[in-house]
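Table S2 (text version). Query chain:
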Amino acid sequence: MPYAAVNGLEMHYEEAGEGPPLLLLAGLGSDSRCWGLVLPGLGRRCRVIAPDNRGSGRTLPRNIETAIEILADDAVTLLDVLGIESVHLLGHSMGGFAALNLAARWPARVSSLILAATAPRNSVRNNLLFAGQAEALEADWDRAEWFRTFFYWIHTRKFFEDETAFRAALKLALEDPWPQTPEDFRGQVRALARYDGSRDLAAVRARTLVLTGRQDIIFSREESSEAAAAIPGAALVELEAAHAFQVEKPREFSEAVLKFIFGDSEGDET
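Corresponding structure-token output:
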């Protein structure tokens, strides 16, 4: 279980595979476990590094204030600790906000940028939704009901029709040995609401892929397209999935990422 001293944190991270480094930044309420289904595929070609953001997973201390810019700072410091000069950078949802901010502020550290199921800023609707989820956690809602409600927003209808997959995902969430505290979830919700990456888009210099799910209702195709249109030369790729496409479509997700990084089926980096 690797840990690194990062900006006053004891930051936990997972690592898999060999090759050019690929840093994965997780979204709201998530940690390195959210990448479990794609780590083997991505690790065939890359040295994959998946940290637990501050306020999540096994990273300590708990109940710590955060901001998107701070998450980006943490990611750069982790690269410093690991001795990595530049990295392929992939951020999902809230992790996409942090990846965008990092790429704008430290262009030399980003070999390529992948923004997955994200947008330049959060909508008013999303802010209300996430604040409501934070209030439910603080009110000590039944955890199974809380996760079911969250799943409604991030998964496709087909996911719920597969009772085995749905029950397995709910069991995994409920048996999390490192559950996020209500205070830390609230801190991430505030960080999302305060960030506007509109200006960061034009500052990105890295080759960029924007991945969007056709059925994503958290960040729609239109919102993701805004990022792709504003970043010079960015490509937009759609997956037949909802918000959590690394969970529902791990093979398609991994293939899209690796194709972008390496440029051809032989895996030669461009």
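Notes on Table S2: DSSP finds twelve helices and eight strands in the chain. Confidence is low (pLDDT under 50) at residues 266-270.
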